[in-house]
C-alpha cells in the first residue's frame, strides 16, 4: 500500500501506519532540483485506444478478543512445543513465524560475501523479456526470474527482517518517487547505473529514455502487462543535465499502479533494443543492469546466474550487492520428453545430500522428513497467499438453478472445509476469502490500521460455515428435494495431464471430496455427476507441445485453480477489479453486478489507503452474501532452507520466488 519511496537500501523495520496523507507526501529535493535543471524532454505517448485462520470453522469472536489472542500468541512463541510435539497447524505457524527469521540476526550478523546458492528453481525456456511479454508464448516463459538479470523502477522489500504482513515497496532503479498530483507519478532515477561493456550499450550510463521506452513498450496493446497501464496516457523522460527524471501522466488516478509495477515482468532494457534498432537474441543471454548476469540456462532443467560486478546498489552498511557469487536453479521435478519423472525422487535426494540449500514442501509430512534429514534447517510455515486457494465457479449466475442465491449458498454451506483442509492439505490450509487481507482494515473499529493477520472463520460469513441442515432447508425452499433433485455436473480436475506431467496433486482429491460432501449431506436433494476434463493440445512457436484442460460441456461447476490464472496479488486490484468487475479480464465466474462494478472502479481511484480499504470491504461482503463462487480453503506455504542460509525465505511469499526473485541479491551463506 505504501506510496512512499525510499532513497536508501536498508533492511525494513516496522511499516508506517497508513494514512490519508501518505498518498501524496513523498518528495525528493534532489529530484526536484534535477527536474528544474532539465533543458527539454522526450515524450513517449501511448495512443488512446482500447487496451486490452483457522481451518476448522469456529464460533463468532469479538474483534478485541481476536486481537488479544494474536498478541498473546506473539508474546508466547517461545513457549510453543517442540516440532515433534506439534499437531495443530496453527502451532506450527507460530513456531516457524517470520519473527523467528528476524531473530536469526540477533545479535546483528554481518552478511558474508561470496559463495554459491543452489535452490529448487523452475526451468527457463527463454530469458528474453520481449518473449515474456508475448501472450501466445506465456506458457513457455518463466518471466518471473527476469529481475535476477534486469532492473525495474520499484520492487518488493523481501528479507528475513521485512515485515511479512505488509507488501512494502522499495526503489530499484528509482531513487525516490512522489505523486505530484492525483494523476502524475514522478520518479527520480538512481545515479551510477551503467549498462554492460558490450554491444550495443558499451558501458554507457542508464538514462531516462531507457526507462520510459521500456515502460512504453509494456503499454502496447496486446502485451501481457498492458491492462496495468490502461490509466497511463503518456510517459515523459526528462532530457538535460543529469537526465534523471521520468513522469507517468495518467488519465485518471490509479491506486494499483505503483504496487503492480513491482511485477517481475516490468524490467528495463536498453533503448536500442526496445526500439528494435539492434536485433539481439536474448533468449540465452542478458544485457541488463540487474544483480546477476545470465551464465547458463539449458532450457529444461537448470540455470546459473553469476554476480554482476557493475551492479550499482549497496546495502545499508555500504556492502556491494549481491552478496552471492552465483545462484544455481535446479528443476528437480523436470521430466523427460516422454513425461517420465526423474528417478529416485531427485528433489529429496538433493535436499538430503545437502546439494540443494532450499526446497518447497507440501505439508507436515514433508516438513518432518526435511527436518529429519537436516535437523538444524530453518523451516517456515506461511499464512495462505491471497487468491491462492482453489474454488468452483458456476455455469451461469443469470439463468438456470444457480441464478437463485439460495442454491449457491446451500452448496457452500454443505461443505466441511475443516475436513477438506485436513484430508487434502494435512491441516495446512485456512478458510479463503479470495481477497488480499493486507489491504483491509484490521477491524470495523480500526481508525488507521490495516490487517496484520489472515482471515478468520467469524469474518467470512454464514455461507462458509458448515451447516448441512440449513443447506437442505435452502434447497427445499428453492424447490429441490428427493422428488426433484438438483443435477450437478462437477468438473473433476485430473492429477496428471496426457503427457504424464502433474497438473495439481490436490485437484482430483478436492473435486472428489466436494462431490462426496454434497452426496452425503444433501441426501437425495442433489444428483452429482462426475465429469472428466477434456484436453486440447497445441504447439507454440518454439515447437513445444502443450496440453490445455477444458471442462466437459455438461459441467455445472468448474474447478478453478488460481495457478491457471495470472493474478498478481501484490495489489488488490486484480482480485477486486480484474476478477469481479463485469469486464474484468479474469472474471471467469461471469459476475455481472452493477454495484460491484461501481465499487471496483472506485477502489482503483482511491489513493487514500483507508478509503480504498472501505471500498474493498464492500466488495468482499457483497460476494460473501451472494456466493458468486464456491470458495474452499487456501493452503499454507511451507519451505525449508539449510542452516547458514540467510534472507532466502519470507512469510508472505515463501511458497515460491515467483513474485520476489531479486531477494536473492540479499541472500548470504555463512562461511
Distance between the termini: 37 Å
In percent, how helical is the residue content?
10-25%
> Low-confidence parts lasting 5 or more residues at pLDDT below 50?
1-78, 134-141, 335-341
Q: How would you sum up the global shape? A: globular
Strand content: 15-25%
Structural class assignment: alpha+beta
The helix count comes to 17
Largest sheet: 5 strands, antiparallel
Mean pLDDT: 79
Tell me the radius of gyration.
25 Å
Question: Order of strands side by side in the largest beta sheet?
Answer: 1-7-8-6-5
* Beta strand count: 25
Notes on the structure:
By secondary structure, the chain is α+β, with helices and mostly antiparallel strands. A five-stranded antiparallel β-sheet has the order 1-7-8-6-5. The model is unreliable at 1-78, 134-141 and 335-341 (pLDDT under 50).
Short description:
The chain has 17 helices and 25 strands. The protein is of the alpha+beta class.
Keywords:
four-stranded mixed beta sheet; 25 strands; 18% strand; 671 residues; single chain; 17 helices; alpha+beta
Tell me the layout of helices and strands.
Elements (H helix, E strand, L loop, with lengths): L28 H9 E8 L17 H13 L13 H7 L2 H6 L12 E5 L8 H5 L20 E3 L12 E3 L2 E8 L2 E6 L18 H11 L13 E9 L4 E6 L6 H4 L10 H4 L17 E6 L4 E6 L18 E5 L15 H8 L4 E4 L2 H10 L4 E4 L9 E4 L10 H9 L3 H9 L3 E3 L36 H10 L8 E7 L14 H15 L4 E7 L1 E6 L5 E6 L6 E4 L12 H4 L17 H12 L3 H18 L2 E3 L1 E3 L2 E4 L3 E2 L21 E2 L2
Helix pairs in contact: 11-13, 16-17
Amino acid at each position: 500500500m505504501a506510496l512512499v519511496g525510499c532513497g536508501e537500501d536498508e533492511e525494513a523495520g516496522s511499516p508506517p501506519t497508513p494514512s490519508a496523507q501518505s498518498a501524496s507526501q513523498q518528495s525528493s529535493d534532489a529530484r526536484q532540483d534535477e527536474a528544474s535543471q532539465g533543458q527539454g524532454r522526450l515524450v513517449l505517448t501511448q495512443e488512446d485506444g482500447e487496451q486490452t485462520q483457522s481451518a476448522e470453522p469456529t464460533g463468532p469472536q469479538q474483534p478485541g478478543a481476536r486481537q488479544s489472542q494474536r498478541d498473546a500468541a506473539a508474546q508466547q512463541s517461545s513457549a510453543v512445543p517442540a516440532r515433534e510435539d506439534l499437531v495443530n497447524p496453527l502451532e506450527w505457524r507460530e513456531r516457524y513465524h517470520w519473527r523467528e527469521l528476524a531473530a536469526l540476526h540477533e545479535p546483528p550478523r554481518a552478511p558474508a560475501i561470496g559463495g554459491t546458492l543452489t535452490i529448487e528453481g523452475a526451468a527457463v525456456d527463454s530469458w528474453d523479456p520481449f518473449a515474456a511479454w508475448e501472450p501466445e508464448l506465456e506458457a513457455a516463459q518463466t518471466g518471473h526470474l527476469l529481475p535476477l538479470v534486469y532492473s525495474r523502477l520499484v520492487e518488493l522489500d523481501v528479507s528475513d527482517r521485512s515485515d511479512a504482513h505488509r507488501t512494502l515497496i522499495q526503489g530499484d532503479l528509482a531513487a525516490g518517487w512522489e505523486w505530484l498530483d492525483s494523476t502524475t507519478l514522478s520518479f527520480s532515477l538512481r545515479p551510477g547505473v551503467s549498462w554492460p561493456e558490450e554491444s550495443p550499450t558499451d558501458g554507457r550510463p542508464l538514462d531516462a529514455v531507457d526507462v520510459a521506452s521500456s515502460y512504453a513498450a509494456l503499454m502496447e496493446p496486446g502485451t501481457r502487462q498492458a491492462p496495468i497501464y490502461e490509466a497511463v496516457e503518456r510517459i515523459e523522460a526528462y532530457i538535460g543535465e543529469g537526465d534523471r527524471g521520468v513522469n507517468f501522466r495518467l488519465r485518471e488516478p490509479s491506486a494499483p499502479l505503483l504496487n503492480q509495477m513491482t511485477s517481475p515482468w516490468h524490467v528495463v532494457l536498453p533503448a536500442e533494443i526496445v526500439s528494435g534498432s539492434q536485433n539481439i537474441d536474448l533468449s540465452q543471454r542478458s544485457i541488463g543492469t540487474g544483480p546477476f548476469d545470465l551464465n547458463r540456462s539449458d532450457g529444461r532443467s537448470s540455470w546459473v546466474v553469476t554476480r554482476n560486478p557493475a551492479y550499482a546498489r549497496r546495502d545499508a552498511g555500504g556492502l556491494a550487492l549481491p552478496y552471492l557469487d552465483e545462484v544455481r536453479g535446479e528443476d528437480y521435478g523436470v521430466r523427460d520428453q516422454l513425461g517420465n519423472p526423474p528417478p529416485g525422487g531427485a528433489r529429496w535426494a538433493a535436499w538430503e545430500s545437502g546439494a540443494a540449500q532450499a526446497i518447497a514442501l507440501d505439508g507436515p509430512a514433508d516438513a518432518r522428513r526435511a527436518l529429519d534429514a537436516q535437523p538444524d534447517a530453518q523451516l517456515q510455515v506461511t499464512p495462505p497467499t491471497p487468491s491462492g486457494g482453489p474454488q468452483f465457479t458456476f455455469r451461469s449466475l443469470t439463468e438456470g438453478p444457480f441464478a437463485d442465491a439460495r442454491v449457491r449458498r446451500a452448496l457452500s454451506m454443505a461443505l466441511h472445509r475443516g475436513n477438506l483442509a485436513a484430508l487434502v492439505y494435512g491441516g495446512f490450509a485456512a478458510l479463503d476469502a479470495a481477497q488480499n487481507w493486507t489491504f483491509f482494515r484490521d477491524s470495523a473499529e480500526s481508525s488507521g490500521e490495516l490487517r496484520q493477520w489472515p482471515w478468520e472463520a467469524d469474518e467470512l460469513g454464514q455461507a462458509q460455515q458448515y451447516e448441512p441442515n440449513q443447506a437442505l432447508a435452502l434447497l427445499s425452499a428453492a424447490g429441490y428435494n428427493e422428488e426433484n433433485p438438483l443435477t450437478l455436473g462437477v468438473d473433476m480436475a485430473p492429477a496428471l495431464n496426457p503427457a504424464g506431467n502433474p497438473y495439481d496433486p490436490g485437484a482430483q482429491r478436492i473435486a472428489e471430496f466436494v462431490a462426496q460432501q454434497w452426496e452425503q449431506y444433501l441426501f437425495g436433494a442433489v444428483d452429482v455427476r462426475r465429469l472428466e476434463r477434456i484436453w486440447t493440445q497445441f504447439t507454440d512457436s518454439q515447437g513445444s507441445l502443450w496440453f490445455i484442460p477444458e471442462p466437459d460441456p455438461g459441467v455445472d461447476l468448474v474447478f478453478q485453480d488460481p495457478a491457471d490464472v495470472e493474478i498478481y496479488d501484490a495489489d488488490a486490484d486484480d482480485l477486486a477489479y480484474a476478477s469481479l468487475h463485469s469486464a474484468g479480464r479474469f472474471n471467469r465466474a461471469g459476475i455481472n453486478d452493477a454495484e460491484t462494478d461501481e465499487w471496483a472502479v472506485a477502489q482503483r481511484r482511491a489513493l487514500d489507503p483507508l478509503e480504498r480499504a472501505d471500498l474493498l470491504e464492500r466488495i468482499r461482503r457483497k460476494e460473501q452474501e451472494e456466493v458468486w463462487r464456491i470458495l474452499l480453503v487456501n493452503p499454507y506455504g511451507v519451505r525449508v532452507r539449510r542452516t547458514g542460509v540467510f534472507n532466502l525465505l519470507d512469510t508472505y511469499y515463501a511458497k515460491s520466488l515467483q513474485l520476489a526473485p531479486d531477494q536473492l541479491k540479499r541472500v548470504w551463506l555463512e562461511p
